[in-house]
Amino acid sequence: MASTPEEWLEKAISEEYINNVKFDKFTDPIHIGMGDFGRVYKYEWKDCDLTVALKCLKVDPDGLDEKIVKDFVKELKLLLKVSNHPNMIKFYGVTKDNQGYYNLILQHAEDGNLRDYLKANFKTLQWTDKLNMAKEIVLGLLFLHDNDIVHRDLHSKNILIQQKQPKLADFVLSKRINELPRTPTTFGMDAYVDPKFLQDPGWEILDGFREDPVEGTPPQYIELYQRCWDINPDKRPETKEILDILKQIPDEN
């Protein structure tokens, strides 16, 4: 019988058939970013001939209890369930690293996140490419909603790109993982946030300021995204309506 939180977690992962891969199966680590709970590395998974991303869940096991562990494993199962959709980042299982922390084994999107991808490719992408990406993002979001999942943290860095195809990431654990006890070094304290971030234009959104439309954008698309950022949530379109409108916008601009 499991008696410690770590044993609960290992037992639950085993019983729920979540793939638990030995850490020595991964080679050639390259640091590619930081997640909320630790570093993210690119690895080669030699047995499967795959390039994957390992996202560390740097959670203090001493603060876990059985309910949190069960809820966490439930979220992993849900992540496994939805990861087969073409607009979701694939989840392959978990592995425990040499420091004793669990890592999510995720598909590596070679083209990076949407924000960086658009910065590098915006001028060369055709309108058809941009419209198709918007449709696929909404298709992924609809799929989450059909599975009773609210993303809660959707932004351009949580949308990854693989061969021009957008894939949503960080969707299932976005709520539950924030309830887990964190190690002291995981987050800074609000009092020590650089004051320049409080002057960021993002704060102006609260006062109704919005960017000007990009030249050449179809008027139907402008009208749609302006409805989406309406300060009154009741006036924003539902996800299904967004997809319907996107399908009506001409591919050629």
UniProtKB/TrEMBL annotation:
Residues 26-253 form the Protein kinase domain. The keyword DNA-binding does not apply. It comes from the Eukaryota. GO terms for molecular function: ATP binding; protein serine/threonine kinase activity. Keywords: ATP-binding, Kinase, Nucleotide-binding, Transferase. It holds the Pfam family Pkinase. ATP binds at K55. This is Kinase-like protein. It comes from Gigaspora margarita. The lineage of its organism: Eukaryota, Fungi, Fungi incertae sedis, Mucoromycota, Glomeromycotina.
